[in-house]
Amino acid sequence: MAIFLTESSRVLVQGMTGTEGRKHTARMIAAGTAVVGGVTPGRDGEAVEIGGTTMPVFGSVKTAMAETGADVSVVFVPPRFAGDAVVEAVDAGIGLAVVITEGIPVHDTARFWARAQGGPTRIVGPNCPGVISPGRSLAGIIPSDITGPGPIGLVSKSGTLTYQLMHELRDIGFSTCVGIGGDPIVGTTHIDCLEAFEQDPQTRAIVMIGEIGGDAEERAAEYIAAHVTKPVVGYVAGFTAPEGRTMGHAGAIVSGSSGTAGAKKAALESAGVRVGLTPTDTADLMRQVLAQLGAVA
Predict the structure, then answer these.
(1) Calpha distance 138→31 (Å, rounded)
(2) How far apart are CA 237 and CA 211, in angstroms?
(3) Fewer CB within 10 Å: C terminus or N terminus of the chain?
(4) What is the predicted pLDDT for the residue at 257?
């Protein structure tokens, strides 16, 4: 099993005909993803050659879904137009919209987030690396060759730390890795992923990567204490960040004692989460957890 994305997922790429869309579509195809077409307004009926595969281009998500049976869209649309692109995917009823675009205005994110509430569309992102279920499917820009399938579920605010933990634990492997993005508003949260991993039979243990700013990690800690029975190992980026300065993602700002790495670490540990001080330390903790479960030698 996996969460959100499997080998049966049929993937559209909004913005496939752009430079980034073409490049990452080729990588997704090479990873085994069932990419079924692209969406670029005004180019309905065209086709493009990507990675040795001829891909149909549709003028709208609704048309593409009707023609291909797509249930996932990956958005590589420039920030100025990305909000409208996600709203289009939501209005078409796509099951999963993975929004890679960085720099989308927060009011646009709030608009498509609100549009999706109560509907069938799960939004991952924006400003995220996407979702990968190794050996099954990739929706986004996560390198597909640094790990394989295994018993670990991973949810992370940081793209680069997602890749590092995948690499550190590559000999064990992952059920699904979800980069949720670090913007102030994101469609899928740590808690959403924790809930899904708790229900996934392949996932034996969970790595949760957070960062300074906001209270998402504290809320996740409360959820873990109340609802998660599987072991969780955590890492919080930003122990050395100066107070009051935005660091990295737009959401990573510390005000007083609120949102500090130390406060988040304490909240997670109070919920029974083992928290590493470095990514490598975090990977070592996960190895210990899996050994205790008998999941690794």
Answers:
(1) 7
(2) 4
(3) C
(4) 47
Q: With 70 as the cut, is the pLDDT of residue 247 above it? A: no
Closest by CA position to 225, among listed 257, 160, 270: 270
Q: What percentage of the chain reaches a pLDDT higher than 90?
A: 86
- The half-sphere exposure of 237 on its side-chain side, counting CA atoms within 13 A, is 22
* 72 backbone dihedrals φ, ψ, rounded to 5°: -135, 140
| Distance (Å, whole) CA 166 – CA 61 | 32
Alpha helix stretches (DSSP H) within the chain = 19-30, 61-68, 79-92, 106-116, 159-168, 190-199, 216-227, 261-270, 279-293
d(CA 130, CA 34): 15
Residue environment code for 79-95, b if the CB has 16+ CB neighbours within 10 A, otherwise e: eebbbebbbbbbbbebb
249 given a catalytic annotation: yes
Q: What are phi and psi of 87, to 5 degrees?
A: -60, -40
Catalytic residue among 24, 107, 190, 249: 249
Spatial distance between the Cα atoms of 208 and 39, rounded to a whole number of angstroms: 33
